[in-house]
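We were asked to recover a plausible sequence for a given structure. The inputs and outputs are reproduced exactly as logged, with field labels preserved.

PROBLEM: sequence recovery
POSITIONS: 350
GIVEN STRUCTURE:
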C-alpha cells in the first residue's frame, strides 16, 4: 500500500513537472509571433492605443513578471487583486479584500477575434472532440482485436497476409490522405448509395423545433478516418501478442485437457494477450483527443482541432495557446491514469 501511494505521488510529481515545462515552452514560443497589442489595435490603431493595450495586457512588464502573471492566471489556486478579478471576470471562490486568494477556473485569456474567454471557446468545442475520439476507438478496438486474434489463429494464411498488408498501409498513410480517399469514395462517388455527407457536425438543428439532434450519419466518415491508424496498430499488436501466448505451456495444457479451441482462444489466450493492447488503446485515445486537428477541419467537425486550425488561420494566439495546453493536459492525464491502473492490474511491474 505504501509503495503504491509512493508510486502515484512520483507519477503525479513527474506529470506536474512536465506540464510546467510545457507552460514555459508555450509562453516563450508564442512571444515570438508578433505583438498582441498591435494585433488587437488593428491597422487603425495609433501609438497611444497600442501603449494602453500593452499596459492592460501587462506587456510592458519584464518577461519574468509576465510569466508569473501567466502562471497565476492558469493556476486554479491564485492570488489576484479585486480589480483584476472583476476586469477578467474570473470565476471561482475568493477570500480577501484588496488582494484576494482564491480557487478559480483557469483563465486562458480572451480571443482576439471574438473577445470571448478562451476557456469557454475550448470547453464548447471539447465535447465534439471527445465524442469523435470515442467513436473512432469504438471502431478501432473491437475490429483491431478481432482481426489480430484471427490473424494469429490463422497464421500465414491468405487472410493473415492480407490483413497485415492492409494494417501496414493503414499505419503508413497519413490521416488527411485517408480522409480525401474516404470522401471521394463514400461521399462523392457512391454518395447515392451511402447518403453520407462530406461536411457535418455531430449534431444538426431541427428546423421545426430548433433543438439539437444527434446526426449519426455525420459521424461515420470522420470516425472511420480517425480510427484507421489505431485499428491497424491494434491489429498488429494483438496478432503479435496472441502468437506469443499461443506458444505458452498453459495453452498446451488447456489443449491437453480437451478444451475446445474456441474456449482456449477466448478464455485463456486472449485475456493474457490484452495487457499491451490495453496500454496501446489508452495511449491512442489520448493521441486522438490531442491530434484530431486536421480531421475535424477537413470534415467541418466542431471540436478543439477545428477551433485550433481556425485560430491559426486568424492568428488568434490566446486560443492557440489554450488549445495546446488543454491538449497536452488531456494527453498527460490519460497517461497518468493508464500508468497507475496498469500497475494495479499487472503485478509483474510492481
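RECOVERED SEQUENCE:
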Amino acid at each position: 500500500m505504501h509503495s503504491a501511494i509512493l508510486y502515484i505521488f512520483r507519477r503525479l510529481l513527474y506529470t506536474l513537472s512536465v506540464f510546467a515545462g510545457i507552460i514555459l515552452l508555450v509562453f516563450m514560443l508564442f512571444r515570438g509571433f508578433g505583438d498582441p497589442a498591435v494585433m488587437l489595435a488593428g491597422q487603425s490603431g495609433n501609438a497611444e492605443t497600442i501603449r494602453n493595450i500593452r499596459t492592460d495586457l501587462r506587456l510592458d512588464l519584464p518577461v519574468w513578471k509576465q510569466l508569473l502573471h501567466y502562471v497565476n492566471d492558469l493556476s486554479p489556486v491564485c492570488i489576484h487583486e479585486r480589480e483584476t478579478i472583476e476586469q477578467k471576470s474570473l470565476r471561482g471562490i475568493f477570500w480577501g479584500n484588496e488582494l484576494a486568494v482564491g480557487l478559480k477556473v483557469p483563465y486562458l485569456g480572451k480571443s482576439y477575434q471574438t473577445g470571448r474567454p478562451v476557456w469557454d471557446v475550448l470547453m464548447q468545442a471539447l465535447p465534439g472532440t471527445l465524442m469523435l475520439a470515442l467513436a473512432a476507438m469504438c471502431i478501432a478496438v473491437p475490429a483491431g482485436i478481432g482481426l489480430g486474434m484471427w490473424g494469429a489463429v490463422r497464421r500465414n494464411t491468405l487472410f493473415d497476409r492480407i490483413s497485415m498488408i492492409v494494417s501496414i498501409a493503414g499505419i503508413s498513410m497519413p490521416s488527411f490522405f485517408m480522409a480525401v480517399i474516404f470522401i471521394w469514395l463514400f461521399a462523392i462517388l457512391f454518395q447515392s448509395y451511402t447518403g453520407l455527407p462530406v461536411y457535418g457536425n455531430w449534431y444538426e438543428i431541427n428546423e421545426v423545433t430548433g433543438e439539437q439532434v444527434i446526426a449519426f450519419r455525420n459521424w461515420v466518415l470522420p470516425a472511420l478516418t480517425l480510427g484507421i491508424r489505431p485499428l491497424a496498430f491494434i491489429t498488429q499488436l494483438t496478432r503479435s501478442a496472441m502468437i506469443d501466448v499461443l506458444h505458452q505451456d498453459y495453452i498446451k495444457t488447456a489443449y491437453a485437457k480437451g478444451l475446445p479451441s474456441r474456449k482456449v482462444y477466448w478464455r485463456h489466450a486472449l485475456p493474457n494477450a490484452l495487457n499491451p493492447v490495453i496500454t496501446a488503446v489508452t495511449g491512442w485515445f489520448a493521441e486522438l483527443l490531442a491530434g484530431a486537428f486536421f480531421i475535424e477541419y477537413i470534415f467541418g467537425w466542431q471540436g478543439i482541432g477545428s477551433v485550433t486550425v481556425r485560430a491559426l488561420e486568424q492568428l488568434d494566439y490566446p486560443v492557440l495557446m489554450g488549445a495546446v495546453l488543454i491538449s497536452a493536459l488531456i494527453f498527460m492525464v490519460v497517461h497518468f491514469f493508464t500508468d497507475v491502473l496498469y500497475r494495479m492490474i499487472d503485478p509483474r511491474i510492481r
